[in-house]
Fold this protein.
Amino acid sequence: VLCLGATVLPGCHSSSPGNAAPGGVTSEAGISCPPLNVTLEHIDNSADETWAGDGTIHKIPYDLTIYHTVTLEPCAEVQIAPGATVTVRGAIVADGTASQPIHIGAAVAGSPWATIRTASGTGTLSFAYVTVDGGGDPLNAGADYAAMLDVSGSQASPAQEILRADHLIVK
């Protein structure tokens, strides 16, 4: 199990206090993303999907298992419901850029979601210029087992490439 530490850096969207100028453009850090304006709920994953970075808020309203590939475009905003777990048996590919980062956070401020986890070596996570925050609810397990990212492989298999992280911020 891999638990990651955090460094605080500016976010992408106008929902990040102090970072965005009017219109969703952040000039001080050179970040340029559209303002958040539309909400789309994701309740299942029956095929490969691309979640747009066009100002849409992608909400996960409860536990979700990803069986296929979900690609997050640069500037994508994903908000996870309190206590929700995202289990990845397929893949999440989130390749932001320095000027168009991706944000994965809480749907309700102050109410953490549980975890994004891979399942016994069957899922993969690929994060570039992504900030993950607002998670880590231990649910019934206790604080020692709380992790926003729970990355594990199968002990019965050879080494697996499960996590690729480039400029990943977990806070």
